[in-house]
Amino acid sequence: MSSLTTTLGRGAAAGLAAGVPQVILAQAEARVLDLPGDRADIGPRFVRRVAERFDAEVGPALRWVVAGGFHFGYAAWWGVVYALLQRWRPAQPHVGGPLLGALIYTLAFSPWGVATQTGTERSVEVRPTRETLLHWTAALSFALTLAYLFARLEHRPASAHDPVW
Q1: What's the confidence (pLDDT) of residue 157?
Q2: What is the chain's Cα-based Rg?
């Protein structure tokens, strides 16, 4: 087993990498679901909402820069969390990924989630099902990609029957 620092670095790297397909998939899905163009752009709306709460003015360009930093910051952070969980209780990527995705969805988009509580996303009672599907896809695609990338970086087989990659 690798050192804790190496494991956490691999988790952060997997998280950063997993953040890219998450954005691409969410954008594509928003188009397929015929959602307004900005519905997949949660980050800039979140930055705007937080700025409003602090009576701050944040222009569109700065919103995107801060949102991008936030996106990749939380992606790396979730990678570190996943790496710690894997050291504590290792799970196959097809198990650990969806569990992490459910946790992310709950903390971000559920009635208790930050995006819902800040008003970035509509309340689940009035949110269209297409938007909820978009949120679930974003959380699950990120978490599954992270889980499989982390397994690859840690040189762990995806299942007991798979050879080491």
Answers
A1: 56
A2: 17
Q: How many CA atoms lie within 13 A of 99 on its CB side?
A: 13
Q: What is the pLDDT of residue 165?
A: 47
Q: DSSP states of 61-123 as a string?
A: HHHHHHHHHHHHHHHHHHHHHHHHHHHHS---HHHHHHHHHHHHHHHHHSTTSHHHHTTSS--
Pull the structure tokens for residue 149.
């990338």
CB 122 within 8 A of CB 68: no
Q: Would you give the DSSP letter of residue 138?
A: H
Closest CA to 102 of 150, 126, 135, 148: 135
Q: What is the pTM of this model?
A: 0.88
